[in-house]
């Protein structure tokens, strides 16, 4: 692994950690897949930008000390957990009960995909925990260079997330083109996505 880089302790390990974090199944990945299947490449890229924007908000909130406040006041963190659980469950239920011909749960316009993915990222416990607890471990106190260090970390996360999102979107779009002609398969996948979102919401609600 690489050593300290601009105040980032073991930059190589930091890059690997981000990649592993991106690969872990969760609401963010589901948002990318669903957005691409609904809105094509434009929708998928819009969702990717939403995930990036959400990550940046959480990262800079952690830098500003919000994570320390939430750690000191667990009730605040649990409140965020409940908000995330309610939102994911609501979204999943809408997808589950949607009928053929209904307006899409995720709007076709890319800006809506961005907003949807942004909200899912901000309320995603996986992302919150990463920026509260895991992210600070890669800051080298001896080599720290203030905003420059955090800027490098933020840029690295954004670039890796975009590349990952691009690959996920293209793969999803390639597969979606082959099943789009069959409404039954498309409807089944939407119901499955709804079930997954409800599952994520329930898991988030009961986790402590």
Question: In words, what does this structure look like?
Answer:
The structure is a single chain. The protein is mostly helical and 208 residues long. It has one domain. Helices cover 77% and strands 0% of the residues. It contains eight helices and no strands. It has helices at residues 11-23, 27-63, 66-72, 74-97, 110-122, 125-134, 147-179, 183-206. The two termini are 34 Å apart.
Task: Describe, in short, the structure shown.
This protein is mainly α and 208 residues long. The protein has helices at 11-23, 27-63, 66-72, 74-97, 110-122, 125-134, 147-179, 183-206. It has one domain.
Q: Largest beta sheet, briefly?
A: none
β content, as a range?
under 5%
Envelope shape = globular
Classify the helix fraction into a percent range. Answer: over 70%
Measured between the Cα atoms of the first and last residue, the distance is: 34 Å
How many extended strands? 0
Structural class: mainly alpha
Mean pLDDT, all residues:
76
Q: Helix count?
A: 8
Low-confidence stretches: none
| SSE order | HHHHHHHH
- Output the radius of gyration: 18 Å
Query: Any idea how many domains?
Result: 1
């Amino acid at each position: 692994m690489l050593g300290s880089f601009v105040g980032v302790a073991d930059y190589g390990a930091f890059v690997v950690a981000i990649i592993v974090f991106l690969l872990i199944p969760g609401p963010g990945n589901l948002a990318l897949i669903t957005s691409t299947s609904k809105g094509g490449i434009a929708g998928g890229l819009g969702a990717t930008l939403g995930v990036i924007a959400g990550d940046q908000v959480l990262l800079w909130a952690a830098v500003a000390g919000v994570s320390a406040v939430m750690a000191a006041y667990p009730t605040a963190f649990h409140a965020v957990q409940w908000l995330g659980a309610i939102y994911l469950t609501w979204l999943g239920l809408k997808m589950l009960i949607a009928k053929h011909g209904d307006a899409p749960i995720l709007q076709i316009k890319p800006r809506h995909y961005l907003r949807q993915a942004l909200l899912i990222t901000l309320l995603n416990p996986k992302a919150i925990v990463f920026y509260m607890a895991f992210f600070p471990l890669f800051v080298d106190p001896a080599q720290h260079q203030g905003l420059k260090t955090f800027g490098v970390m933020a840029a690295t996360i954004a670039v890796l997330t975009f590349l990952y999102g691009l690959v996920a979107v293209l793969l999803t779009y390639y597969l979606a083109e082959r099943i789009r002609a069959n409404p039954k398969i498309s409807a089944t996948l939407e119901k499955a996505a709804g079930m997954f979102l409800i599952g994520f919401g329930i898991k988030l609600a009961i986790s402590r």
